[in-house]
Here is the input.
Amino acid sequence: MRSDLLGGLALVAALVASLLSSTPARADACGGAIAPPTLTVRTDARPPTQDHSRGVASLSKDGNLAVPRGLENFRYAVGVTAADATGHTEWDMQGQALPDGRQCWWITQAKIIATVSTRVFIAKEIPRGSCLWNEVVKHEAKHVHLDQQLFPKMSGLIRPRVLAAISHSVVARSQAEARTLLGALLSKATRQAVSEFQRARDAEQLKIDTAAEYSRPNKICGEAAVSAIIQRAGPM
Ligand SMILES: [Zn+2]
Here is the structure.
């Protein structure tokens, strides 16, 4: 049973750009630090969903799922709780002409909306309503509960990291190039911050997966019930 992944982060950018017509900036000053842009980060946590489409073999070998492979008696995953995150960004930029004909651009304000949701996988080989089913649901509920405590902390982790990454200007040959460069800067910083949150979340989630917790279904439902599911799943 067990844990956890923040999936692909899709960033969509909406943009307002303006090239200032004031005196040209100094070319050698461009690329350096700017006053930090206005940055707001919001996390939307969606209600958890259940997924019965995948089998034991598929869940067990999925390297994106943080199952406790280090656990001495870990052999397979019959349930997994995963977190998916998608990001939406909106940002504005401003630029100035440089004396050499190029331009200097920077982000003036940005908004990041991160949507996070928890998906509970229960292996398709487990009969609905069986003892093992109930045990897996009970166990995964602990992961879901922890996600609900962790998700509100996500914005606080993302904000300072992204702010540090976008607090400098870039040299560009055109507004289009500036848009590409700054957009990449913002999305890369957001992805990295979300990955960092993911690692912290996975580490917290794996604390739930103790050896005692992991052997509970076998104790409560019996070795035979668990073996029957593994048999049904076929070779791993
Ligand atoms: Zn678990």
The two ends are 15 Å apart (CA to CA). Residues 1-14 have pLDDT under 50 and may be disordered.
